[in-house]
Specification:
Strand content: 15-25%
Helix content: 40-55%
Strand order of the largest sheet: 8-9-11-12-13-14-15-16
Distance between the termini: 60 Å
Largest sheet: 8 strands, mixed, barrel
Number of helices: 15
Radius of gyration: 25 Å
Structural class: alpha/beta
Length: about 375
């Protein structure tokens, strides 16, 4: 939306807290630098706003409070960094991300390195869009084991991308792109449906019932209608709601709005389980844990790695287990890779675990064979 326009200049709101300043001619690197410094100087000036009620309560004017804002500027020049409007915006956005990562308020120019990185990102996003349309995505399953009896009781569903040319593309490469572009909503919806379909097929084949855990991204929870997606997937596939678990990270839950809690309560009303993933690595606010209708805590792998050698790691795991059990939550440990780690987890009272000690994530057919062999 354009908020100001003059001859050869345009200021507009792009998205969220991002604005664009477009100057059509006569902009050198030196002039762009001066403009960026001018903008930062103005934006970082302290503002005085009404921020208190004591004065008004005593019959005077409301108190005024000083507020300091931070700012960052990304700069791209035509034709040095791109020859198209879309390209200029992409380059400026890439430079803005770098500027935001620096200390204090700063500006950053697009560069050859950023240009190449942007090209790679755009290319990967285009390929990912095609992958969704052409059904190149797969769901792998990592077993979850009951620690007391050794039974295979569930699995975490993990999305994978098999590119016809490049082969398997690492989730570390495409998941961040999917989240930035919003494609994660479509991917998440597909993973949910495919997991429910596969779970129903395994049950129809007479295999033991499993709880299948599906990761939920923040965008799915806040911008999509996750409750509707879950209800429709369960109805279409015939998968039991009691065998579906949704995993949400701590950072996803920190928004803690009334609408968020309403959605989570509706999900629990559907009968599905709710797990807090990567527990202990985020804000770990006990106030949200008290309100969140969780059924499981998943201890992050970083606390498991040094379990056998560091007393501090064991103390943290013991505290999480005690907290979870006090709140009547199951506790699962992720990333278990050695028998020594597993022995400690059993001593500390963890309920279940997953990790390479049992199996890496497997395609559905291989997971089914593992399930049959363990039965």
């Amino acid at each position: 939306r354009a908020v100001n326009a003059a001859a050869g200049r345009l200021v507009c709101h792009l998205d969220g807290d991002e604005f664009g300043v477009f100057i059509s001619s006569g902009v050198s690197q030196k002039r762009a630098t001066r403009l960026a410094e001018l903008l930062l100087g103005e934006l970082t000036q302290p503002y005085r706003v009404n921020g208190g009620v004591n004065g008004a309560a005593n019959g005077g004017a409301p108190e005024r409070q000083e507020v300091h804002l931070g700012a960052a500027v990304g700069i791209a020049l035509y034709p040095l960094h791109s020859t198209t409007v879309a390209g200029i915006i992409q380059q400026a956005d890439a430079a803005l991300k770098v500027a935001r990562g620096e200390d204090g308020s700063s500006y950053h120019f697009a560069s050859a390195e950023l240009t190449e990185a942007t090209r790679r990102r755009v290319n990967l996003e285009t390929r990912l869009r095609n992958a969704i349309a052409e059904r190149q995505l797969l769901v792998y399953y990592q077993p979850q084991i009951d620690i007391r009896h050794g039974h295979l009781i569930g699995a975490e569903a993990l999305v994978r991308w098999r590119d016809p040319v490049a082969g398997l593309v690492s989730p570390a490469q495409f998941i961040p792109i999917a989240e930035e572009s919003g494609l994660i909503v479509d991917i998440g919806r597909w993973v949910l449906e495919e997991t429910c379909r596969q779970g129903a097929a395994w049950r129809a084949a007479g295999l033991p019932p499993l709880v299948l855990a599906v990761n939920v991204a923040a965008r799915q929870l806040y911008s999509g209608d996750l409750v509707k997606d879950v209800q429709e997937s369960l109805a279409r596939t015939g998968f039991s709601e009691t065998q579906l678990e949704l995993e949400l990270t701590e950072s996803t839950l920190m928004e803690d709005t009334g609408e968020l809690m309403h959605r989570l309560e509706r999900l629990r009303a559907c009968g599905v389980e709710l797990a807090i993933d990567d527990f202990g690595t985020g804000y770990s606010s006990l106030s949200y844990l008290q309100r969140f209708p969780a059924t499981k805590l998943k201890i992050d792998k970083c606390f498991i790695d040094d379990l056998a050698h560091q007393a501090a790691s064991r103390q943290i795991v013991a505290a999480i287990v005690a907290l979870g059990h006090a709140m009547k939550l199951d506790v699962l440990a992720e990333g278990v890779e050695s028998a020594e780690q597993l022995e400690w987890l059993e001593r500390l009272g963890v309920d279940s675990w997953q990790g390479y000690l049992c199996s890496k994530p497997l395609p559905a057919a291989e997971f089914e064979e593992l399930l049959k062999s363990r039965r």
